[in-house]
Write a structure and sequence with these properties.
With about 200 residues, this protein is an alpha/beta fold. The chain has two domains: about 1-100; about 105-180, no CATH class. The chain contains nine helices and four strands; from the N terminus they run E-H-H-E-H-E-E-H-H-H-H-H-H.
């Protein structure tokens, strides 16, 4: 079983640690998972945004914060896995690209959305930028602004829905994802999971 761990920011360590403890208890029951469940192991795939600190610093923070739970994570890196005593652990950091290790998932979603709905994206962009105030939450970061633009542009397909539903549920075409280098990289990362039992 893949457990994709989206931490809602890098500072939610305690909540994630509780989840990891629960998973460990489920899968460390003296053979019970193999006897009772179809799922006998899990792989924890951590997904982060690099933000302004970059990929290297994000990976270092991950190793430091989650090493106490998993053990030695020194070999884990962006797009890489390690086997621990309890599971396989991987780390994937969304960033702009090889030339720029800063950024977020939205840096990839925005061009995909702009290509899918060019007129609506442009008008949503203008609406957000022309009407926001410095005190608005949307003004906190570039990623926040991109999320708002993507969500506003997608309301014709998914009225009232948030970003996840705007890009999913047939919001963006499957072709948009199939042609995305980021999606291919993420799929390759997940396929490379070093499962203990095959």
């Amino acid at each position: 079983m893949f457990v994709l761990i989206r931490t809602h920011g890098k500072d939610q360590v305690n909540a994630v640690q509780e989840l990891l403890k629960d998973l460990h208890e489920i899968f460390d029951c003296e053979g019970e998972p193999i006897d009772w469940y179809d799922v006998s192991e899990y792989a924890a795939a951590f997904l982060f945004d690099a933000d302004a600190i970059g990929v290297t610093a994000t990976v270092n923070e991950f190793r430091e914060r989650y090493g106490p739970h998993f053990g030695d994570l020194s070999a884990v890196d962006h797009g890489k896995w390690v086997k621990t005593d309890t599971s396989s652990v991987g780390c994937f950091v969304f960033h702009k690209g090889t030339d720029d290790e800063t950024g977020t998932l939205e840096d990839h979603l925005a061009p995909m959305t702009r290509a899918e709905w060019p007129d609506r994206y442009a008008k949503a962009h203008d609406f957000i930028h022309d009407n926001r105030n410095d005190s608005d939450r949307v003004s906190r970061s570039c990623a926040s602004q991109l999320k708002a633009v993507i969500t506003a542009a997608g309301q014709f397909r998914a009225p009232g829905d948030g970003l996840t539903h705007v890009i999913g549920r047939d919001g963006l075409s499957s072709t948009a994802f199939e042609e995305s280098s980021l999606c291919k990289e993420l799929v390759d990362f997940l396929k490379a999971t070093p499962w203990v039992r095959r």
